[in-house]
Amino acid sequence: MTTIKNWQEYSYYLALHLKNKERSAFRKQFLSLHPNDQLAFIYMLNEHTRKRLYRYIAPAEFAEIFGRLEPSEQRMVVEELQPAYVQETVRAMPTDEMVDFLSGFSVTETVPYLNLLETHEAEKVKRMLGYGKHTAGALMTTEYMVAHITHTVADVLLHVREQGENAETIYYIYIVDDEEILRGVVSLRDILLEAPTTIVEAIMQDKLISVETHIDQETVLHIVRDYDLLALPVTEQGKLLGIVTVDDVMDVYYEETEEDFGELAGVSGAIDLDIGVMQATKIRLGWLLRLIVISMIPVVFIYLNPQHAYSIALAVPLIASIAGNAGIQSLTAATRVKELGNEGDFKKLVLRDSLVASLLATVSAVAVAMLAVVLEQPVWQVMLCTLLAIFLSSVIGTILPYVVKDSASASSPVIATWSDAITVVLFITLLSF
Amino acid sequence: MTTIKNWQEYSYYLALHLKNKERSAFRKQFLSLHPNDQLAFIYMLNEHTRKRLYRYIAPAEFAEIFGRLEPSEQRMVVEELQPAYVQETVRAMPTDEMVDFLSGFSVTETVPYLNLLETHEAEKVKRMLGYGKHTAGALMTTEYMVAHITHTVADVLLHVREQGENAETIYYIYIVDDEEILRGVVSLRDILLEAPTTIVEAIMQDKLISVETHIDQETVLHIVRDYDLLALPVTEQGKLLGIVTVDDVMDVYYEETEEDFGELAGVSGAIDLDIGVMQATKIRLGWLLRLIVISMIPVVFIYLNPQHAYSIALAVPLIASIAGNAGIQSLTAATRVKELGNEGDFKKLVLRDSLVASLLATVSAVAVAMLAVVLEQPVWQVMLCTLLAIFLSSVIGTILPYVVKDSASASSPVIATWSDAITVVLFITLLSF
């Protein structure tokens, strides 16, 4: 990779230019970098040189970098800048990034920014701030190419040449009618291949997919992936309002995956390295304490049956461990299948994983029973307990993601803790016969 | 969503046309669908109507659908088709999909397909079949737009108009020199905005990112996401050989996520619904049995210390459960951070999560100790055991993903099982003082 290989040397000279106050040399080299690398360079600087950098580049040039920062980083950077510089920067951002930035602010705080925009633009941003978090409306950008249904290919090409600079993508041109209703789409590829006098209505794809503003970002993600789209139009009662581009969808994918991982381990919201110690502890402790309540079931059962203590001490940790692990396996498989999911998949999954659970339970029960013989423990009870505990944990693991509303309640720790409780209750019940 | 809303009605009429043998009506409506929806329709058919559908559409039309099938589905479909139809279909596929399909075959089996291609094309496919699984070389397509460094903007535009139909993307045009060395890239946007007589060398972006053929697909994914690319060029010693497009990268993202999920739960390779009962059982049982070996540590310890059975029975399941859950939380956070990872993150993560672990351990130890008072158990031993077990499990969970080579050894079941062992050993050791 060219960029990565030369990066050390390149950033060394960049930093040198900045240190020596060689403004134009610095600008030339810095601005030829991709915003992602510009940001990587800024991360290397101390506050003093960072402030010089801000002075060397214009707000409009800084806007692309600023839009890539996390909200928490944006707030830190704002502290280091003159208010006028911040406002100019924000004005130069595409609407979706502007909305991301402003969404952390109170309504009053957004006023100075909105005042800088043209009325029409300000209205648009205000409306977008009103869309729910994680919806297509909040994710969309309003910088897209649009053409009227009566336009010719030549009209559209001219329009792309004149306005293309400001659009997020020029590779799809959306076709609307007099009421701004979305009627179709043409790709730039089509435009280049067709005769200049052709009317776009004749060549546009009119079976196109769009989403309403309130649609969840996860649905947006699935559509873009399934249909290999570079952008997806967003409408309200048929009126075209914006587009969601594939690079923003990639970021959503990343967020959603992070969420799924976190929920599966009861560590939701405590993964990100930006989260501090106290915050992470609070979140994780909340989950652990909730689980202790479940753990009290086996404690009470064992306390009430001291006569079986030795068998319990010996057999329960082993059986509960296998059952818990089998449950975690089933849960993870079910969570993924549900996440990707069609309706019919649930039946198919339950059928397969119940069979798998029976087999796992049988094999494990025989193995543990053999161990019980060696350790002179009640063989039949141990075997039956192993069989039932593993089967039940697995089946609960499979069904749990489909029945709980709050998906964080279907996590590995939850299933492991329930497995302990099930094992103890089963074992003590079996021993009492 | 237009498509989804009308889908039921649309597919009803499609099926009707097919049933009534209305070939041209069927073709017209079917071919206007997106390949993703064409595939969804085919899934609804029985073998008889499916075979009629194959007859109604040409191999070249079927190629786009065929490329979207999973390898296992492709093999099933091949069974239903005439060999000549299959060969024509494969010939019409883009090289990356052709390679995906053929990579499941032995060298001899690929011969009839390769014979259909022009020598130059066949050589290319053969070379691509040689690239390692999950590398940039295996992922790339060779249908891209290329122009010589001396060409003008007008030359390139003409070239796009003539050859654009066959390229996977026409939105980036790669610039090479006489030795086919990749020298730069121009976007179609640039081409449209520049004067026709401009030489591309003057306007091309020459600081561009490319990867060598052997680079892992995970790296490809990170680059495409970080730099918001629609395509990434793949080279060998500087020579341009292909491009990886963003839609293929989305599929990789999906695969990698699935892998991570599976590994985290010791259920790797057993999630997909296409995996049968026996195969899924085999994979999962393998993991469970390996863990039983670890579980033998507490069993042996308890067996050798029967005098402590009652305390063990009462305290160990509770402490081990909390410790295991804390370990799973840490493991999940660490796995994600590593996955996204910079070098410096490890230190930052260990520092933060050790502090979090200390806090979690302290709070839990106090809570469990209070319970020990109520249940008349050895308070100090219970408290110290809880403190140490939770702290150790958490720290091991944080470090594990970074120290094990085989990432499936850093799964939730592994950490939970080790937590059990640690708790028992600690508790018995403490009781013996």
Automatic annotation (TrEMBL), chains A, B:
Ranges in coiled-coil conformation: none
Protein topology in the membrane: Multi-pass membrane protein
SUPFAM superfamilies associated with the record: CBS-domain pair, MgtE membrane domain-like, MgtE N-terminal domain-like
GO cellular component, one term: plasma membrane
Record key words, sorted: CBS domain, Cell membrane, Magnesium, Membrane, Metal-binding, Transmembrane, Transmembrane helix, Transport
Hydrolase in keyword set: no
Organism superkingdom: Bacteria
Record-annotated CBS domain positions: 140-201, 204-259
Principal location class: membrane
Alphabetized GO MF terms: magnesium ion transmembrane transporter activity; metal ion binding
Location of the protein in the cell: Cell membrane; Membrane
One Pfam family in the UniProt entry: MgtE_N
Transmembrane portions of the chain: 287-304, 310-334, 355-374, 380-403, 415-432
Alphabetical list of InterPro entries matching this protein: CBS_dom, CBS_dom_sf, Mg_transptr_MgtE_intracell_dom, MgtE_N_sf, MgtE_transporter, SLC41_membr_dom, SLC41_membr_dom_sf
CDD domains associated with the record: CBS_pair_Mg_transporter (cd04606)
Protein role: Acts as a magnesium transporter.
Membership in a protein family: Belongs to the SLC41A transporter family.
PANTHER family: MAGNESIUM TRANSPORTER MGTE
Self-association and partners: Homodimer.
The protein, known as: Magnesium transporter MgtE
Organism: Metalysinibacillus saudimassiliensis
Gene: mgtE_2
